[in-house]
Design goal:
The protein has a seven-stranded antiparallel beta sheet with strand order 15-12-14-13-17-18-16. A five-stranded antiparallel beta sheet has the order 5-6-10-8-9. The chain is globular and about 70 Å long. The two termini are about 30 Å apart. With about 450 residues, the protein is an alpha+beta fold. Strand 5 and strand 6 form a beta hairpin. The protein has 14 helices and 18 strands. Helices cover about 30% and strands about 25% of the residues.
């Protein structure tokens, strides 16, 4: 079959319930673009899949022609793994159906759904599961990379709540993978960062989560060292209902902050308490009342509302370059290396986020899934971000410099979802034992390497 011939693409178009987008069309131009505006790639075609049968048809077509494939769920991966030059993109954006079984506390979610859509379906039942810190993130890539979020310390990672997947393999077969069926595949899907099949449906465990005690307190930059030490000390014994994030960020033009600090770089301590709100207010008081803050915001609110709080910090189409580092300890030497550069980015949109794990994340054995970073107590995401394309080089260089400054204090590896470049997946995401096991699974389930992520 001449895979590049118009006739071949016409055959695929006729086989799809959805649409086939080819270069030259306006919808192709729109859908080839992903969340990160710095990614500018041109797939051979885009198969907008309406259902799992469409996915299978597109995969079989690609397999016959030995055409590499990528999968677009939310398109939110910073390295742009959803799109590749010379590949067929499987666009799952139309596959966003969510079925909630409130009695069983589970949700069946199609692979193209976004987390805000999941929250909208589960919250009327007073239920939720761990989703991304930004609600416009897609469920697919996020889950396959592990899935950290505001509920993780109480409820576990997204993969810890994954009960089952429906997967189209690289030969077009559809299988169910769970702890009892294709258990080896299920292990690899949970944190392996993709490349094992196209997950058309995820089934998640849900937890009783309605209202949360959540908010943030803003401090001037010079308070960063003291605030980081307080964060470190509180995180060491934090109840599992509590997840914290400390952010170097620009002060928003909000009424809870004085006008003279709007737009200035500040440090903010944010929290989400998913247990009893009254107990959370008491437990968090030492952090909320620390020092002389510039302003505070928060209180008791619906979880879904808090889940969307940081969406405005990650608008689609702007230019991003991320990196991440993981730490066994957050000592004073690390604070001294972090604070000066984190507070002096080249663009006001840049941020640095300091996170902690523990709780339910650490309660699962490191080898139970392909996500092998559960014993990490702290990680730092450096988020180069600019609305001005000409500034991209500067934000990339700043991001790399900050990672280099943190390297003497850090582990060598990083979480899949925060790998800023595709090459990081090969060198920094999985240890040798996990990588060997994933390679064996890919050889079994995708021997032609049609779905393998680009490694550099």
């Amino acid at each position: 079959m001449a895979v590049a011939s118009p006739h071949a693409w016409q055959e695929l178009a006729r086989a799809l319930r959805g649409s086939l987008l080819l270069p030259g069309g306006s919808e192709y131009a729109r859908r080839r673009r992903v969340w990160n505006g710095a990614i500018d790639r041109h797939p051979l075609a885009i198969a907008q899949c309406a259902d799992a049968e469409d996915v299978a048809a597109a995969v079989k077509f690609a397999a016959r022609g030995h055409i590499p494939m990528t999968v677009r769920g939310g398109g939110h991966n910073v390295a742009g793994l959803a799109v590749r030059d010379g590949a067929l993109m499987l666009d799952l954006g139309q596959m966003n159906r969510i079925d909630v079984d409130a009695r069983a506390r589970s949700a069946r979610v199609e692979g193209g759904a976004l987390w805000r859509e999941v929250d909208a379906a589960t919250q009327p039942h007073g239920l939720a599961t761990t989703g991304g810190f930004v609600s416009t993130t897609g469920v697919g890539g996020y889950t396959l990379g592990g899935g950290v979020g505001w509920l993780m310390r109480r409820c576990g990672l997204a993969i810890d709540n994954l009960l089952e997947t429906e997967v189209v393999l690289a030969d077009g077969r559809s299988v169910v993978a769970n702890e009892h069926q294709h258990a080896d595949l299920f292990w690899g899907l949970r944190g392996g960062a993709g490349g094992l099949g196209v997950v058309t449906r995820f089934t998640y465990r849900l937890h009783p989560v309605g209202e949360v005690q959540a908010g943030a307190v803003f401090h001037p930059l010079e308070a960063a060292p003291a605030l980081l030490r307080a964060f470190r000390e509180f995180a060491a014994d934090a109840p599992p209902e509590c997840t914290l994030m400390l952010a170097f960020t620009a002060a928003p033009p909000a009424p809870f902050l004085p006008p003279h600090v709007h737009g200035m770089h500040v440090v903010a301590l944010a929290w989400c308490w998913s247990g009893d709100p009254a107990r959370g207010e008491q437990a968090l008081a030492p952090l909320a009342n620390l020092g002389r803050p510039l302003g505070k915001v928060g209180g008791v609110m619906p979880y879904a509302a808090w889940q969307q709080t940081f969406d405005s910090h990650a608008p689609a189409g702007e230019h991003y370059y991320w990196t991440t580092s993981q730490f066994d300890a957050f000592d004073d030497a690390l604070i001294a290396a972090l604070a000066p550069q984190a507070g002096a980015p080249p663009d006001p949109a840049c941020e640095v986020h300091v996170h902690h794990l523990g709780g339910a994340v650490a309660a699962v054995a490191n080898d139970a899934t392909a996500f092998s970073h559960r014993d990490v107590p702290f990680f730092v995401n450096v988020i180069g971000h600019t609305a001005v394309p000409e500034n991209f080089g500067a934000i990339r260089d700043w991001t790399r410099r900050l990672r280099a400054a943190l390297a003497p204090h850090a582990r060598a590896d990083m979480q899949p979802n925060f790998a800023g470049e595709a090459a990081d997946l090969a060198t920094h995401v999985h240890g040798s034992a996990v990588q060997a096991r994933l390679s064996a699974l890919r050889a079994q389930y995708d021997p032609g390497g049609l779905l393998a992520p680009v490694r550099g």
